[in-house]
């Protein structure tokens, strides 16, 4: 299972292009551009499993650093600052990692400031 079986390659390219410059990554814009924002809960779960490289059930900071490369192998590595802000966007319990439920909960609460997707 790869991300391109869930998201279109064109949408991924577009999303990656928008955040090519270091420190320009905006997760909301990215998830919208790559099409993840409009995916079903089941599809988001599959994406989550792909991003959770070590199958720990959580996406940790180290995995977020290589987040863009999961979408395309030649994409850049996120800066520490970007990886941290990506986590804090959905990390409601401040344990420094994101669980699948957190990813989904933050997705549905669109009025929440911490909305992830
Ligand atoms: Ca993990």
* Fraction of residues in H or I helices: 40-55%
Under CATH, the topology is which? Recoverin, domain 1
- Annotation, overall tally of beta strands: 2
Could you tell me the radius of gyration in angstroms? 13 Å
Integer count of domains: 1
Account of the protein in words:
One of its GO terms (molecular function) is calcium ion binding. This is Parvalbumin. Keywords: Calcium, Metal-binding, Muscle protein, Repeat. It holds the Pfam family EF-hand_7. Residues 39-74 form the EF-hand domain. With 117 residues, the chain is mainly α. It has one domain (3-108): EF-hand (Recoverin, domain 1, Orthogonal Bundle). Helix content is 48%, strand content 5%. It contains seven helices and two strands. It has helices at residues 9-18, 27-33, 41-51, 61-65, 67-71, 80-88, 100-108, and strands at 58-60, 97-99. The protein has a two-stranded antiparallel ribbon with strand order 1-2. α1 packs antiparallel against α2 (27-33). The longest helix is centred in the middle third of the chain and has 11 residues, at 41-51. The relative contact order is 0.16. Calcium ion binds next to β1.
